[in-house]
Design brief:
The structure holds two protein chains of two kinds. Chain A is built from 13 helices and twelve strands. Chain A has helices at 12-18, 32-37, 74-79, 81-86, 89-95, 100-105, 108-112, 137-140, 162-167, 186-189, 270-276, 283-293, 305-319; strands at 5-7, 23-26, 45-48, 58-61, 65-69, 172-176, 181-185, 208-214, 222-228, 239-248, 251-260, 267-268. Chain A is an alpha+beta fold. In chain B, the strands form four sheets. In chain B, strands 1-2-10-11-14 form a five-stranded mixed sheet, with helices on both faces. Chain B is elongated. The chains are: A alpha+beta, B alpha+beta.
Chain lengths: 322, 350
């Protein structure tokens, strides 16, 4: 672990003033400290946000949707009965995410901005493309956990269980810099690494994710979250699926199908969504949409099994909306 | 292959007990319906044959203190299997004192030589030496007691720390009070195994699983583990060892694997994130049974080792259960989603 300076401001404005090129925001630290110990991240200054009380907690305002502070611990959303009534897909996704210890330390913002889990990226010994090297080691190496959809120069997958669930509800995030403030769709927070863009997140230097917002209209959707793992708990998704839709009279509208663990970003299966939009949520429609969701998949040497998993999880998640 | 007859073999009894516990008679060719539409249920079993006879060299000494307690010293160690406890039991029973009166000194290379804690060696190697040392100590103590009490030695015995003779009981302490600067030290060594027989352990594991045929997920619902290890010295510790073996073997069967990056030869999962040991949620009900009949030809305890045996048959039993459930014959561990799905597809193609 390289030496670093640590600041613990109480005001968001002070935190934003301290952040910059060589400084990194620290929340729960469950991902960042691992990256630092593995030699993948080496910030000169950590700006600990945990004393910034204004970033904690969630609020439902009738007609104004849901707001979740970025520093809210995952466990709070997982275990709150009141929250489960507002957005049950989130506790459903968090219940199978990581461990109770990690969910207690980990925060909403940290979860959404966590780095990928590619074992070549995480191992200092591999100078992979994403870290500034010349090539991707996963393509010629062991690719069992890598992307089947939408990858370009990097085949690492989006690891978060929370992100697909929130994207299925059209969540937006607020990003604050020392002198800037913008809101983007959560889906747009994620970018596919390609060309000169060697990163997975659209955040700019010095920006902090301060809040997640879910629009009022989306809260009326039904949702389902499914996750396939290679043991029963405490491990990242091989494939995860968040599905959501407004269902009236047996017919679905505003259909969202978002997959984790299959692409560099949380993957919206738009063509599959279109097959269910306005249709009855039945076996035929769900199976057709599931087939469509993986129709463009391009597996690597070791991960063709993810196609079968993704297809089946999409089918099951959609059926649960009926 | 030694071509020698086994000293004792009760594998058929393991089959009988295991089949009854798992409900083998309900097993159907091709499996049965599972708890959901996409799941199939199946049952499988596998056998285990392993060493466990132990052997020389192994030594132990037993000091009897004037207060009637004893100190057992042996150059072995307790890596969590309960060696300390079972050696105290063996010593106490043979010497004739309470188990709480025996202090076990192990884990020190100054102690009399003992084997490594590996290869199912300890119980059947060190245990007999301890018993022999306790016999020696008891004989010496009773010899001294015979002189003090003026009773023929053959009329004396040791029970719960007292010298017993025709109903009269004398605490060990009183014998030592009569003797000045007298020390009782018994020594024991592990004698060679008979050379006309093969000493082995046997066992059979039975697994009940469900397989989700659409996602390749394996759910282990129940494992029944039955072993013939001769005499069981401590049933609770032995059962615990079996449970540990079964849990490790579930990891071996379903999730644990070292992943090598082929081009560089570097291990890419040398961490507990991607080297996936089972969690509590991966562990099913485990039923443990023992034949528990002493193998009298094996050694002076009739006991054999139980280090490796519990980890040997589980993965085979699970793989066989998966094959029974859905026809997926996976011949490599672990039975990952990828392998199970591929085997199911292969089964459909056939």
């Amino acid at each position: 672990l390289r030496p670093f300076a640590l600041a613990r401001p109480r005001a968001l404005s002070d935190a934003l003033a301290l952040l910059g090129t060589r400084a990194t925001a620290l929340a729960g630290g469950t991902d960042l400290l691992g990256l630092m110990k593995d030699g993948v991240a080496s910030p000169e200054r950590l700006v600990d946000l945990t004393a910034v009380a204004s970033l904690r907690g969630w609020k439902r305002e009738r007609g104004a949707g849901l707001r979740i502070g970025a520093l809210t611990p995952l466990v709070e959303l997982e275990t709150s009965r009141a929250f489960a009534r507002v957005l049950p897909i989130v506790p459903e996704a968090l219940a199978v995410a990581a461990t109770a210890q990690l969910r207690t330390m980990g925060t909403v913002g940290g979860n959404l901005l966590q780095a990928n889990r590619c074992w070549y990226f995480r191992d200092e010994a591999f100078p992979c493309w994403l870290k500034g090297g010349t090539r991707c080691f996963a393509v010629g190496g062991d690719s069992r956990y890598h992307a089947i959809l939408g990858a370009d120069d990097c085949v690492a997958v989006a690891p978060s269980d929370l992100a697909p669930a929130l994207i299925a509800y059209d969540a937006r995030v607020e990003l604050r810099g020392a002198r800037t403030r913008r809101a983007v769709a959560l889906a747009d927070l994620y970018v596919t690494p390609t060309g000169t863009r060697r990163r997975h997140h659209a955040t700019r230097t010095g920006e902090v994710l301060t809040e997640v917002r879910v629009p009022e209209a989306a809260l009326a959707r039904r949702g389902a979250f499914l996750k396939a793992m290679d043991r029963k708990a405490w491990t990242f998704a091989l494939v995860s699926v968040a599905a959501a839709a407004r269902v009236r009279g047996g017919r679905a509208s505003d259909v969202r199908i978002v997959l984790g663990g299959v692409a560099p970003v949380p993957w919206r299966a738009r063509a599959a969504e279109a097959l269910v939009e306005g249709a009855r949520v039945d076996e035929t429609a769900c199976a057709a949409a599931a087939d469509r969701a993986v129709a463009d998949a391009e597996p690597l040497k070791d991960n063709a099994y993810k196609i079968a998993l993704a297809r089946e999880l999409v089918r099951r998640a959609l059926l649960r909306l009926a | 292959m030694t071509r020698l007859p086994y000293s004792d073999k009760r594998l058929l009894q393991c089959y009988d007990v295991g089949a009854r516990e798992i409900g083998w008679s309900t097993r159907r060719r091709g499996g049965t319906a599972g708890s959901t539409r996409s799941r199939r249920r199946g049952m499988g079993m596998a056998s285990q044959l392993w060493g466990g006879g132990g052997g020389p060299p192994a030594y132990a000494t037993v000091h009897v203190n004037p207060d009637g307690t004893a100190v057992l010293t042996a150059g072995t160690q307790d890596i969590g299997t309960g060696t300390r406890t079972i050696l105290a039991q063996i010593c106490a029973e043979e010497l004739g004192v309470d188990v709480g009166a025996v202090r076990v000194v192990i884990g020190d290379t100054d102690a009399p030589y003992g084997p490594i804690s590996a290869g199912s060696l300890t119980t059947a190697s060190v245990g007999p030496a301890v018993r022999a040392a306790a016999v020696d100590a008891r004989t010496r103590l009773l010899g001294a007691a015979a002189g003090v009490l003026e009773v023929p030695q053959k009329e004396l015995r040791l029970e719960r720390g007292q010298i017993v003779s025709k109903g009269a009981k004398t605490p060990i302490r009183e014998i030592f009070d009569q003797l000045v600067n007298y020390t009782v030290i018994g020594r024991g060594s592990r004698y060679p195994n008979p050379d006309d027989t093969a000493i082995k352990t046997f066992g059979a594991h039975f697994a009940l699983v469900e397989v989700d045929t659409a996602t390749g997920e394996v759910f282990v619902e129940r494992v029944v583990a039955v072993h013939d290890i001769g005499r069981v010295v401590n049933p609770m510790l032995a059962a615990s060892q079996v449970r540990g073996g079964v849990i490790q073997a579930i990891g071996f069967a379903l999730s644990e694997a070292r992943v090598l990056d082929a081009p560089t030869g570097r291990v890419v999962n040398a961490d507990l994130e991607n080297y996936k040991v089972p969690t509590v949620q991966d562990v099913p009900e485990i039923v443990v049974r023992f034949v528990d009949r002493p193998d009298r030809r094996a050694n002076n305890l009739g006991a054999k080792g139980l280090g490796e045996p519990p980890i040997i048959p589980t993965a085979g039993a699970i793989a066989n259960a998966v094959a029974n459930a859905c026809g997926a014959r996976v011949r490599e561990t672990p039975l990952t989603r990828a392998r199970v799905l591929a085997a199911i597809a292969e089964g459909h193609a056939r």
